[in-house]
Specification:
mainly beta, seven-stranded mixed β-sheet
Length: 117
């Protein structure tokens, strides 16, 4: 069974930077695509960023473009999300997502990021 475990959540001041990581239980090359989603209180879960394995092409939500960077570390089998210029509206539970080549969708348990002074 495939597992994803997020880490790095915490309290960050507005304008600050923070980095999330997602460790996978299998080699990261087994995933067709991976991504980060987030869910703020009272809101639906939304896409933050995705990365496609074959092309390593990335997509970002308009709200995070230019501030967030998604990347894969194949050697460590981790997915990362570098978050810069954080805003209070970035406060949410962040979830790691992966899609296998069999089109199975896997989710992590989520990690809380709070942007507040």
């Amino acid at each position: 069974q495939v597992h994803l475990v997020e880490s790095g959540g915490g309290l960050v001041q507005p304008g600050g930077s923070h980095r999330l990581s997602c460790a996978t239980s299998i080699n990261i090359v087994n995933f067709r695509s991976m991504g980060w989603y987030r869910q703020a209180p009272g809101k639906q879960r939304e896409l933050v960023a995705t990365i496609i394995r074959e092309s390593t092409s990335t997509t970002y939500a308009d709200s995070v473009k230019g501030r967030f960077t998604i990347s894969r570390d194949v050697a460590r089998s981790t997915l990362n999300l570098q978050m810069d210029s954080l805003k209070p509206e970035d406060t949410a539970v962040y979830y790691c997502n992966a899609v296998t080549w069999n089109m199975d969708v896997v989710w992590g348990q989520g990690t809380q990021v709070t942007v507040s002074s």
